[in-house]
Amino acid sequence: MKAVFGLGNPGETYAETRHNVGRMVASSWAKDAGIAIKGRKFLARTGTGAVDGEQIIVALPQTYMNLSGRSVAAITRFFKLSPADVVVISDDMDLDFGRIRIRPKGGSGGHRGVQSIIDELDADGFIHLRIGIGRPTDEQDDPVDFVLLPFSREELEALPDIIERARGALWAVIRDGVVAAMNEFNG
Fold first, then answer.
1. Per-residue model confidence as pLDDT tens digits over 109-163
2. Residue 163, domain extent
3. 137: domain CATH number?
4. Is 111 marked active-site?
5. Strand partners, 97
């Protein structure tokens, strides 16, 4: 079994913000995989299904971003998953807008939602699919405010292609493994 977590903040207020791009990718991928996200348990909206004979749970934590680890840990422990069976999809300000990076493990890079997961699991060995949202262009902008802003018009035009590429990256992780996915998408 594998678990896919799309990080973000719950509610309509945050639905179209940069911080929710992980949630957008996980939701889109689940729909593509035929997994309906309609359950509510483990502090998350969840859906389960089989992909190529493997059980997958897709979860959208309903805690706020900085507490994502609570949901991830609850699901991971309940299903007795190792960190290597966990895929976390999140935004990343250190990557240029639209760039995708996959890692089999690693630190949080200052992302508080990812740090929450590392803290709750007491491990960093989960697969991390990061989607670049870039940094604020004006040095006066606070990064905390930036991630909670909606995408610009230009970014919104590019977003469907970015979500499609990230969805492809997740398919590669699930079907081909993390190393093959890294070789294909970390360019």
1. 889 899 999 999 999 999 999 999 988 877 657 777 888 888 889 999 999 999 9
2. 2-185
3. 3.40.50.1470
4. no
5. none
